[in-house]
Amino acid sequence: TVKALHPTPVLVNVISGGLTPSFTVKEAEEMGAKIIIFSLVSAVAAVHGIRAAMASLKKTGTDFSSAQGMDPRQFFEVMGLNDIIELDAKAGSTAYAVV
Question: Per the domain annotation, does 80 fall within a domain?
Fold first, then answer.
């Protein structure tokens, strides 16, 4: 059991429908797990979002609905643009000065 491995930290990798039984964070903690990862949660959510966006594009002929008001700058900011601009400036570069 996980508790038999104490004090060694134990990681539980939870994947819905995978080989490991699905546990909640609380259940895994109660078993003694110190690290619980849900390794596919964001990828699966992305697949569902991409499918919905593509279906909307096919149906409506536009991306207005799936963009949900997000413009390209906002997208790149979510992807870390501001961090890259800051890092670039700290390195003495001006490559992103006009972004």
Answer: yes
